[in-house]
Each structure stands twice: as structure tokens, then as C-alpha cells.
Design goal:
The protein is an alpha/beta fold and 311 residues long. 37% of the residues lie in helices and 27% in strands. The chain has two domains: 221 residues, 3-Layer(aba) Sandwich (Rossmann fold); 69 residues, Alpha-Beta Plaits (2-Layer Sandwich). The strands form three sheets. The protein has a six-stranded mixed sheet, sandwiched between helices. Strands 1, 2, 3, 5 and 6 form a five-stranded antiparallel sheet that branches. A four-stranded antiparallel sheet has the order 13-14-12-15, covered by helices on one side. The protein binds adenosine-5'-triphosphate and magnesium ion (MG). The site of magnesium ion has 4 residues, from helix 1.
């Protein structure tokens, strides 16, 4: 639903977005991760047609983002900027009605739709609140409701959980997950990594304007991890298991963690891991559990950016 081809936007010498190739599948959530100044907002603005690229292409549901296609693009996208503008003199209702009118929804349909979007974002009770009286969390929810008014297929949310307290972040995550269930394709940015891991189908890591990797959290972890870290739980005999493991090719650093658990590093391929289990079982090591440590996003990110800085 979203695709870019070698997208470039330069601000001076080193800042901007460079050779960005991004792909977001239909009805999925794509987490766009990177530290402050990495180029997330710039990329998002390029996708929405708010910035013009120096070179490269961006496509929204097959339509190229070009000035002549902007009307069609706007219909497809719900864009929530990192800062939701303040409309002091309006109530929540008036604010949403204003957007509905801007998208030319007929009044009757508009009313129904506003009720729906307020319901989706758990904001029905705020309908008559003044925009100025809203807390940060409330404002964020109304900002999301606004992006939904014209029922776009694609949602592009720039830091939707920015500045929210932990409970409000969880609620925002749940709402986003629900929107995916409603069939929306969602691109969201964040500089907080663990937050994205739980709801995203795919993650792209951007650093200094370059998209360093993209894939599922697991895939990215696997790309990065040169050695597998494996945990084994046995019913008894950790010492026997340790001696046994140390004889297997590619197994290193066998560590006994406690009475039933061991950990080791395996430099072989993933396909060879099952061979280790077989070997252990055949030799009467009472294996109860065998698992590969999943790389967590935080470590993956640190590893990837360190590599980039060294290169
Ligand atoms: N209009 C502009 N003029 C000059 N430089 C800009 C402009 N917009 C962005 N930049 C620079 O481009 C880089 C990327 O900025 P961008 O806002 O895309 O980062 P970001 O990943 O969204 O960061 P944050 O997490 O802080 O929102 C930064 O170095 C920024 O200073
Ligand atoms: Mg930003």
C-alpha cells in the first residue's frame, strides 16, 4: 500500500532522507523507528506530498505521490502529524465536523461518521468539550479521530504516542491494533522501540536518513545476530548436559544458569540446531525445554546503529 523507490530529500549536506526504499503491506502495521532527527517526519511528509523529493518516487496504493495526484492521495491517507494543531475556539464536535466538511462528506453522513470515529477512539464523552480544555492524551485521541473522519484506507501516524503517560500509550496501542483489525494499513513512527515490537507486523529502522533494515522484529534480529544464543532446560544433570554440549561442533560458552537451565552460543546455522536437540535426547539428557533467545528490538537497534557508525 505504501512503497518508495530510492527516495531522496536533502537539507544541506548530511541531513534529510537518502535512497529510501520502503514497503508497507495492506492491512498491516509498520513501525518506523529511529532516534530524534533520523528522518521519520521527513519521510512521512514525502509520503503525504507535503514535501517534494529531490529524486526517487513514492507510491500510495499504486498512485505516485505527485502534485497532480494529491487529491487522490489525500482521500487514501489519514495523516496525523506529530503536533496536532490547536483550534482554540472549537468544540470537539465542531473540529471534527470541520474536517468532515473539508472532505466534502454530506452533513448526514458526516454526523454518523463522527459518532463512529469518536467511538473507535474511546472519545465519545468528549464530544462537547472545548479543544483548549483537552489534556495531551485527549488531544491525541481527537487527533486520531480526525484522521479517521474520511475513512481512509491508510493511516500515517507520526509519533501517535508521543508525550503520553504509560496508560495512555497502552490505550493508544490498543486503538491502533483495533484499526488494523478494521482493515487499515498503518505506518507509525516512534523513537521508543519496545513500544512498537508488540503491535507491528514489520519494522523499519532509520538512522541518519538511511533505512538500515526492514522486516519483522524476528527477521531483523536474525539478520543481525551472528551467533545464536540458545537456552536449554533439563529435568536434572546440568553438569552432564554441559559436558555433553561442549563436545558438539559449533557450541561455545556453555554456562549453567541454575539447577535446571543452561545457555550456550551456537555458531552453526539455524537448521543445525535441531541436530543438537536430537543428540542430547539420544544420550539421555532429560531435555524439558529448548529455545532460541529472541533478539529484543532495543539490542537489535543498538547493534545496527553501531555497525553503521563504524562503517
Ligand atoms: N525544513 C527543514 N530544513 C532543514 N532541515 C530540516 C528540515 N526538516 C528536517 N530537517 C532536518 O532533517 C533531519 C531529519 O528530521 P526529521 O524531522 O525527519 O527527524 P525525525 O526522525 O522525525 O526526528 P524526531 O524524532 O525528533 O521527530 C534533521 O536533521 C532535521 O534537522
Ligand atoms: Mg519527527
Amino acid at each position: 500500500m505504501i512503497r518508495t523507490e530510492k527516495l531522496n530529500k536533502r537539507f544541506g549536506k548530511e541531513r534529510g532522507v537518502f535512497e529510501l526504499n520502503m514497503e508497507v503491506d495492506k492491512s498491516s502495521i509498520y513501525g518506523f523507528v529511529g532516534p530524534n532527527g533520523a528522518g521519520k517526519t521527513t519521510t512521512i511528509k514525502l509520503l503525504c506530498g507535503l514535501l517534494k523529493p529531490d529524486s526517487g518516487k513514492a507510491f500510495i496504493d499504486g498512485i505516485q505521490v505527485l502534485p497532480k495526484n494529491i487529491a487522490a492521495i489525500k482521500k487514501k491517507i489519514g495523516y496525523m502529524p506529530d503536533i496536532t494543531g490547536v483550534y482554540d475556539q472549537m468544540s470537539v464536535w465542531e473540529f471534527l465536523d470541520f474536517y468532515g466538511a473539508a472532505f466534502k462528506l454530506p452533513p448526514k453522513k458526516r454526523k454518523k461518521r463522527i459518532m463512529e470515529v469518536l467511538e473507535i477512539t474511546n472519545s465519545s464523552h468528549m464530544i462537547d468539550y472545548q479543544m483548549t480544555s483537552l489534556s495531551r492524551g485527549m488531544r491525541q485521541r481527537i487527533g486520531l479521530a480526525k484522521t479517521l473522519v474520511h475513512d481512509p484506507a491508510i493511516l500515517i501516524l507520526d509519533e501517535p504516542a508521543g508525550g503520553l503517560d504509560p496508560n495512555a500509550r497502552i490505550e493508544m496501542r490498543q486503538t491502533i491494533a483495533r484499526l488494523k483489525e478494521l482493515g487499515k494499513t498503518i505506518l507509525l513512527s516512534s523513537h521508543i522501540l519496545p513500544e512498537l515490537a508488540s503491535i507491528c507486523d514489520k519494522v523499519g529502522i532509520i538512522y541518519k536518513g538511511k533505512l538500515l533494515v526492514q522486516g519483522t522484529v524476528k527477521e531483523i534480529g536474525q539478520q543481525l545476530q551472528e551467533n545464536l544464543v540458545v537456552n536449554v532446560t533439563v529435568d536434572s544433570g546440568t553438569e552432564y548436559a554441559k559436558q555433553f554440549l561442549e563436545r558438539i561442533d559449533g557450541v561455545e560458552n556453555v554456562t549453567i544458569l541454575d539447577q535446571s537451565q543452561l545457555k550456550f552460543i551456537f555458531s552453526g546455522t539455524r537448521n543445525e540446531v535441531s541436530g543438537i536437540v536430537k543428540c542430547l535426547v539420544r544420550n539421555d539428557v532429560p531435555v524439558r525445554w529448548f529455545s532460541e533467545n529472541e533478539a529484543d528490538l532495543e539490542n537489535v537497534f543498538m547493534g545496527i546503529t553501531k555497525k553503521e557508525d563504524q562503517s
